[in-house]
Amino acid sequence: MTLALGDIANLVGGDLSGDAALPITGAAIIRDAGTDDVTLADSEQAAKGLADCQAAAVLVPPEVKPEGLPFVTVTDVHESFARIVAQFQPHAADRVCGVSAAAHVSKSAKIGRNVIIYPTATIGDDVQIADGSVIYPGVHILPGCRIGQDTKLFPNVVLYENTVVGNRVIIHAGAVLGAYGFGYNTVNGKHNLSAQLGYVVVEDDVEIGASTTVDRGTYGPTTIGEGTKIDNLVMIGHNCRIGKHNLFCSQVGISGSCTTGDYVVLAGQVGLRDHIDIGDRATVGAKAGVMNNVPVDAFHFGIPATPDREQTHTLVALRKLPEMRKQFKALQKQVAALTEQLERAA
User: Among the options 78, 104, 172, 238, which is catalytic?
Assistant: First the structure.
């Protein structure tokens, strides 16, 4: 596909500075852009990279005025660039096939209008799938699950029995919701599985990454709040209550019975011990090991996680330890010398 730069400016409602007829055949970031591509620079700092870039043109915000390169000025660089990328690399639309004859759908399942169920998907007894949802190949939905409108379950997602998924939810490939929690009672030297009678509730507009797992509650729900976005390879234990609009990065691990408030951010590889409460709008830094509750609006990091000011002071002190050790050894020698002099004088 080839688009004139003027057409691209019209597409995003931007102001063009340069040749409107300039042919553009693709869109790529500064690092990857070729000679016929349009790229983006969202700040003066990013625009410095244009000196070594081969792009034919660039999208910029109003405060950036690149020299020697045609540019399109827009209010929101990233939103505009996404529209351009979508023009050159459109997503493949879901094939409208209704319910495939190669899918296994229970006779007691209730399937809404315009639902797409691909071959090899399995839909159990008494499952409800609302209008417009898409179930990709290899998905297994066990009995009693309920799925809202316009929800997508990508290949090989597994929903254990009675899982509830809201509207406009996206669950990526290989995610498992509702597996047994990691709970055992030790009797006569053996670990016996504890009660696993609960389920999982995922509220509206949640996105769950590939190979993420959310365990069922012991007696009631493990809940993922509205608008929360969960990255790939995250593990959420039984009985957890995750608030609204949280952001969990890859490899976060949350032990059982933890709660988070709204707009909580957990960076990559954060680990929470069981029964932890994380307050609204709190942020926990990457690889932190959280052993205690985190207050509202706090920023904790480190192992064990502590408030940022406290952790920073600790790190500064640790960096000084080698020099302090040298000073201590020097002082030991001085004390030894003084002690020897005193003993001689005595």
Answer: 238
